[in-house]
Amino acid sequence: MSILRASKGFLLLEDGTLFHGHIQSASNTPAVAEVVFTTNMSGYQEVFTDPSYRSQIVVMTSPMIGNYGVNGEDPESTKAQVSGVVVRELSTTFSNWRAGGGLAGYMANANIPILYDVDTRRLTRHLRTVGVLRGVIGAGEKPDAAAKAALDACPSMEGLDLASVVTTDKPYAWGKPDAARHIVAFDYGIKQNILRLFEDRDCRVTVVPSTTTAKEVLALEPHGVFLSNGPGDPEAVTYAMGTIREIADAKVPIFGICLGNQLIGLSYGATTFKLPYGHRGGNHPVKDVMSGKVLITSQNHGFAVKGTAESIPGAPDLEVTHVNLNDGSIEGLRHKRLPVFAVQFHPEAAPGPHDARGLFDDFMNAVEARS
Amino acid sequence: MPRRSDLHRILVIGSGPIVIGQGAEFDYSGTQAAKALREEGYEVVLVNSNPATIMTDPEIADRTYIEPVTPEFVELIIAREKPDALLPTMGGQTALNVAMKLHETGVLKKYGVELIGANARAIAVAEDRKLFGEAMVKIGLKCPEGHIATTWDEALAVSEWTGFPAIIRPAFTLGGSGGGVAYNREEYERIVKGGLEESPISQVLIERSLLGWKEYELEVMRDCEDNVVIVCSIENIDPMGVHTGDSITVAPAMTLSDREYQVMRDAAIAVIREIGVDAGGCNIQFAVNPADGDMVVIEMNPRVSRSSALASKATGFAIARIGTKLAVGYRLDELPNDITKTTPASFEPVLDYVVVKCPRFAFEKFPGANPTLTTQMKSVGESMAIGRTFKEALQKGLRALESGRTGWDISARLQDDRLADDTLDTLRGALATPTPERIFQIKRAMLANISLEEIHRITAVDPWFLSQMHELVEAEREYAGLASVDEEALRAMKRMGFADVQLGALRGETEQAVRSQRWALGIRPVFKMVDTCAGEFPSNTPYLYSTYDEESEAPRSGRKSVVILGSGPNRIGQGVEFDYCCVRAAIALREQGYETIMVNSNPETVSTDWDTSDKLYFEPLTLEHVLEIVQREQPVGVIVQLGGQTPLKLTRPLEAAGVKILGTSPDSIDAAEDRRRFEKIARDLGVEQPPNGTATSVEGAVEAATRIGYPVLVRPSYVLGGRAMEIVYDEATLRDYFVRAVRVSEERPVLIDSFLEDAYEFDVDAISDGKQVVIGAVMHHIEDAGIHSGDSACVLPPQSLSAANGKQMREHTVAFAKALGVVGLINVQYAIQHGIVYVLEVNPRASRTIPFVSKTIGVPLASYAARVMVGETLEQIGFTKEIIAPYVAVKEAVFPFTKFREFDPILGPEMRSTGEVMGVSDSFGTAFARAQLAAGNGLPLEGSVFVTVNDHDKPNAVPITRRFHEMGFKILATSGTAAFLEKNGVPCATVHKVSVARPNGIDLIKNDEVQLLINTPLGKRAQKDDYSLRQAAIAHRIAYTTTLSAASAACDAIQSLKSKAATVRSIQEWQATIR
User: Which of B223, B469, B536 is the best residue to mutate to test the A interface, defined by the most A CB atoms within 10 Å of its own CB?
Assistant: First the structure.
């Protein structure tokens, strides 16, 4: 096998910008999706299996990917979710005591292309400058007509309800049946580490499909309700808002993460908007407005609730609890009277820092207070 | 919380001289700290004895005390300055230990001085092995299983539990000094006893070995509101057992999954909270069992460190600067990210590149010293390289070491890879022991098709690193076998970090041919920014590195620019002094409106602070890398004369490539270095030279030496720091020299000079604008001729120099500068023997004395040099006359002998010192005493002086010993010396020679019955007696001198110490007395 030569591949963005690299792809079909970058330096397996990255081509800014292989413990869902991966260098070998195999094989099995040897920094700077774009990954020196056609056919992320695509078909249980508390979790694309953290806090979780009604949920008599992260445009998840308000009005404590945060905002009159290039990574500073403490957070979102630390236009019942120190965007909110709160970042991390894990305890406190 | 308004005056303690384990990184941190405090309006008082630093330049602080960094002197400064606070975390272990002492003795309380940055409790818990272990247990973390011992008997008991190998770590020492890995009982006893002596509290921690575990470091910062960020993770390629300063290290960590990394991150945060570093930074080391991920905390340093300097350069997050601001009350989120300028400092940098740090060693300077790498640091400097991949960064890092490798290359000679023969068994055996060459032995093993599994089994280097290296081997094989090289193949090789010269070697082509082909194919590096955020936010700081990718980010300002070539990794003979000169030049030219562009590969330094220049290229200093930068930047010219030999060696090739060299012409530089050309110039100017010759064969050398007359000084041409320079007294030794030390050939001529016995040496530094030459200073070496100028103490102004000789040296210097057309700095070394001035060498470049001279005369010579190089005249600058300071300044060298116990600590023509200190006073004795104290050579005020000198020195020993006798010292001497002294009226007691009977001199030293040893070596080959005496003196920290002139100076110094109480004065105050 040659080390100096490999199959050529490309990434073409919708604005016509072309990136060269080498490709590993099981199929000849070009992969099209919105192209986003994440600055996580570790945790590629968690990223690629995170349902929130559904219908996205993920660019890793960290240049060496695959070094520690893949294992059976770190996936955030049952399979790799991304549409494609772009990296600077793909490690051909791996070393880690937990590793069960290599990343290349893992992605090949999932039929997800990896474009490697790409100037990912140029790509990142481009996306940062012009905003996220749709793109197509394909084999060869440059795109052919099929690739271009596929790119043209790729829908915009705006207006897309992807939660109903990635959600579970039917409810399932997680955790010990005899656990002290019962949480119902809406699956808009839930990460498994959220479930693990509930389990650690002596909860059993009933994970329900995204379209489950409030009545169905309340019938399960939960001590608390959780609104998960997930992909797509929150405004397109039209069926969630009424459900959330209904559960909240029943005084059941609600905790939301990421898409869950946006949905609570929308439920109470706020609007959401698409960030120019999103927040994706594990190093974003977020300030707790009350305490002034800064949390280093894990993030993965393209949309956000409109507003500032002082107010959320259209949602007088809500107040802001967290703000992003890089761009001032809203990172957390809560209902002024009801036990309803949410954050835009990922306290469950995986990947990323654990600074905000206490929020799960805050939720459990709210659950205790109610019970 | 914004800055504290209750503090006004803050004392910052520096780290003193550069020693192994405490290098230029503390110049960087101290300078940043002082700048950060003054920015906030605080008055800064600084203490540091090291004149070669930027931090001790008068404009960095309000008052700068170039005084010994000892509790006694810092107390004097506190008493005089009455600071509100003391920042102890910027000056390494030295500053921390001094601060702790001042706390313990109540000095801080007495003067109401608050410790900021780290409080006394935090320092104590972090440094005391026992308290630290208890703290870790409390927060549920594991430490290596170990026990504390404070006596040898306790240690003996511990060893029954640890078994071998065992790791010994003394408390409160720097660079793991006095520690090590013991594989057997004998080593154990030696290391434990040494460690107990080395530890200021006589405490060692003895651990069960974690050899083979993976080693990591995290750099952590915490503010007063308990916000914590991790700045950087670092993974060592060398597993546990090798000091992190001696390991090749990589940032960020390469083989940790997120889950494992976050566990480590959580642990680090728990550690900094538990230890209680309230506002500042710390470094925490971890070991991880590669088999099951089991993790233990090795240690934490509650201060900035070598690793934090590395992490700052690796990430763009200025730890010392931010740490200082945290220490005066700021929160992380109140401080801006200095690189992006748009986001706050409360974040964790993300890297989209890989950083590799490589240690630079100096074992060639210490024949006989044990090159095995252990937990005690032995390297003297380091290079850092940035690439987009590990492979690229590794090759750049090894290349940047400038130790003769152009990347990850095996050496042509087996012995250069520390192998006795070319058998696989030898290779396997060598791999088992970590040495500086092991990284290259690994390549030999791969070339010999030893499996990666086996290499891993022997070395415990992680398989991932090995497989990355193996890809380089495979790439080389494929490339070498190509029928022809096309763009794809060549680009692939460049992306793996291969230099043109490496590629040429693979296919039997010249570097130039490869470069031509590469350029013809349009394969050029791009320059990418280090921006802390992997491109997520715009960045305005042009901190750049080269790689082979699609997009280049180096901004073009359109302003006229100057490229300044730095000095690369610190090494003996080329240290922080040259970095000082480069920094001065950058600042001066920036002030003159030039865009300044720094190129350097040393992460420890101020020059590689991205604030120092307008642009920083963090690159190896080789022709290829420099050419690519110059071609992109199109500067007015390149400055090569300030960074020592590293840039100087590039002069000719750069000129040949059409690059404009600023200042003294390349031809003149060559004329000064070329023996024959220089001889003619000296002859034409009528300057005496010691009889000399050049030889290209052993017989030629013998012939020349016979003609010149023994003793002779021999050395290879074109060397720095007196590498392999020796004084030879007879033909047999000369022949042996060629067997032992140096090969001679047509290409590698050897220079032979008459050695001027009983001569004194002088250094003259001067500056020239091409027309006018102004003397900077004439310095008098305290040691006799034959001791390398870098190793000799020197005094300014000279204490015994005839007016005629002084005038002659000044005139000669002016004449040389004019004859060579010097534009910039010139250094000339002279020897005076029997009233005749001989020129020894002329260096048309910055010398290592420039910072010392600049500080003494209050003139920034390196700044002026840069300005004349771009066309200003000395007249315009306003420096037209030599300045004679109305006080005395002494520079003393500092040696690493305690780290190389096996080596005979005698001075000679080969430079061995790692650093220097300065003492200033109104008399020679006091200035010399101050310098000795600063160098750690405590001089006794009473007790016994043990004298054993060679016959030649005996007459001159009489007046010196008489003075000691008159000061109340008891004189002890070996039989020969004693008889001579008695005969000449100096009362003394006789001591047995070491080999003759007991109790002998060594016994007396061990019993603390000797306070000062005066021992001049008996001829060239130091005899065993002498050697063991000096070893004993070092081990027992007894003052010693190996020359009579130094003994005489010590006598002056002791006299001054006995006669008056010490006072301190800042360099600004001293300089104000000029004129």
Answer: B536
